[in-house]
């Protein structure tokens, strides 16, 4: 018994539990000892809380934590929005129930697959559903860090696959975007300049939308993207003369319409009394603008310009290392995700033609030389244009050997050709028993 009375009349509470310090105290009354006993027994064993907390309560703790508030503003916004349908369907479940019954999470995924977006009126995309599960995983990861649960059980949940995008930007759209930089509407001009820079810089849309004037180095012709996707590193990229010219035009536009803004491309905060009136550029709105003015076709998205940069660079023979330095893709596999290069591009055709003349022709030459029974020394002499010994060869030059193709006859495999009798090897005799 953890509570017992001493000969002096006092009451002693003595509790030993694995993972917790030994508790041993004396109290004057039994009621006081019983209350302390109940309090000590309610403490979690081995430092873990019993996971009775619901997902909704856990989200509130996570959203108020320093771990959440130190994340990027876009990450906070995304997680806050994506967790709402998760809490609506799973918020009242305790963590231990979700951990022991993963079918509840799969049922939620199936339910969201049939859901229709209130904003677009279309079925939810796989990306939206995947981000909802990612938001749930972020909460459970934090719970593991705070020792509410032992493991991130969402990690084993199969998430909806990401739809692969292969759209490229045809020359007519690039020409319309370039013409849009001279449109009479200043909003169209800025949207066109943003897409133009995406095409010729090859950066991510978020990187360009957050680019500040202080990170543009005019004399050396480069720019610094800060806090990038890869390990939050900074990346310096090259700016071509045409890109610098577009940036100077954008600088004049920014000084006229957004004086004091630190961003190269600026959007205004929705609230008029917002402490920070200038925000990073809303490039999704720029796409809608270009669609409304028939500058780009349906299905266009900002990331297609980055894919066009990488695909065209591959078509023109640029190495993966140079592409990765400019675009921030740190591995060959990550560059290949964007590779939609046309095998019929001019440089690709030329490379295949060169392969045909240099490799395939030499293989054919070697094959005919072997048919004629040339020795290795004769073959080397013929390849170098030197006289070839006539023993046993009949030809003296490379041209003679290649001309022999007309005289070499290969026996047909069909028709009236006499067939050789099939000779079977004799069977091995069995050993005498």
Descriptive notes:
The protein has 433 residues and is mainly α. The protein has four domains: 3-47; 55-156; 171-336, Orthogonal Bundle (hpI Integrase, Chain A); 356-404, no CATH class. The protein is 47% helix and 7% strand. The chain contains 18 helices and eight strands. It has a three-stranded antiparallel beta sheet, with helices on one face. The protein has a three-stranded antiparallel beta sheet with strand order 4-5-6. It has a two-stranded antiparallel sheet with strand order 7-8. Strand 1 and strand 2 form a beta hairpin. Helix 4 (73-90) crosses helix 7 and helix 9 (186-201) packs across helix 12 (283-292). The chain is extended, with a radius of gyration of 37 Å. Mean pLDDT is 85; it is low at 403-418.
Give the key terms.
mainly alpha; hpI Integrase, Chain A; 4 domains; three-stranded antiparallel sheet; 18 helices; extended
The 3D shape can be described as extended
Which regions are unreliable across 5 or more consecutive residues at pLDDT < 50? 403-418
Instruction: Indicate the radius of gyration in whole angstroms.
Output: 37 Å
Strand order of the largest sheet: 1-2-3
Taking the sheet with the most strands, its summary is: 3 strands, antiparallel
* Mean pLDDT over the full residue set: 85
The name of the CATH topology of the largest domain is: hpI Integrase, Chain A
Which series of helices and strands comes N to C? Answer: EEEHHHHHHHHHHEEEHEEHHHHHHH
Domain Tyr recombinase: 164-353
Keywords: DNA integration, DNA recombination, DNA-binding
GO molecular function, one term: DNA binding
Pfam family, one: Phage_integrase
């Amino acid at each position: 018994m953890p509570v017992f009375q001493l000969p002096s009349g006092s009451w002693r509470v003595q509790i030993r539990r694995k993972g917790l310090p030994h508790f041993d105290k004396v109290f004057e009354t039994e009621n006081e000892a019983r209350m302390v006993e109940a309090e000590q027994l309610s403490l979690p064993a081995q430092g873990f809380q019993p996971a009775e907390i619901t997902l909704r309560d856990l989200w509130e703790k996570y959203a108020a934590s320093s771990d959440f508030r130190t994340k990027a503003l876009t990450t906070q916004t995304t997680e806050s929005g994506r967790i709402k349908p998760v809490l609506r369907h799973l918020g009242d479940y305790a963590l231990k129930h979700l951990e022991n019954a993963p079918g509840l999470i799969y049922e939620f995924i199936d339910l969201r697959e049939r859901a229709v977006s209130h904003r677009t009126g279309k079925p939810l995309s796989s990306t939206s559903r995947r981000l909802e599960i990612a938001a749930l995983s972020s909460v459970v990861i934090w719970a593991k860090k705070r020792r509410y649960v032992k493991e991130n059980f969402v990690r084993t949940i199969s998430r909806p696959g990401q739809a692969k995008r292969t759209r490229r930007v045809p020359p007519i759209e690039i020409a319309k975007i370039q013409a849009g930089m001279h449109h009479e509407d200043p909003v169209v001009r800025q949207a066109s300049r943003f897409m133009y820079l995406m095409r010729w810089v090859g950066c991510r849309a978020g990187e360009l939308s957050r680019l500040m004037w202080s990170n543009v180095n005019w004399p050396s012709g480069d720019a610094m993207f800060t806090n990038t996707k890869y390990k939050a590193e900074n990346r310096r990229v090259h700016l071509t003369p045409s890109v610098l010219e577009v940036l100077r035009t954008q600088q004049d536009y920014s000084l006229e319409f957004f004086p004091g803004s630190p961003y190269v491309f600026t959007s205004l905060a929705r609230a008029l009394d917002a402490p920070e009136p200038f925000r990073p550029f809303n490039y999704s709105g720029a796409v809608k603008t270009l669609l409304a003015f028939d500058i780009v076709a349906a299905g266009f998205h900002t990331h297609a310009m980055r894919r066009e940069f990488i695909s065209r660079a591959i078509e023109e023979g640029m190495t993966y290392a140079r592409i990765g330095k400019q675009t921030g893709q740190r591995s060959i596999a990550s560059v290949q995700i964007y590779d939609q290069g046309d095998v019929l591009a001019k440089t690709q055709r030329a490379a295949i033609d060169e392969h045909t003349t240099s490799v395939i022709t030499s293989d054919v030459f070697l094959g005919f030389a072997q048919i004629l029974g040339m020795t290795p020394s004769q073959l080397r002499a013929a390849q170098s244009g030197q006289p070839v010994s006539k023993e046993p060869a009949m030809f003296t030059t490379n041209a003679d050997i290649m001309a022999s193709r007309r005289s070499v006859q290969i026996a047909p495999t069909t028709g009236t050709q006499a067939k050789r009798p099939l000779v079977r090897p004799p069977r091995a005799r069995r050993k005498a028993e």
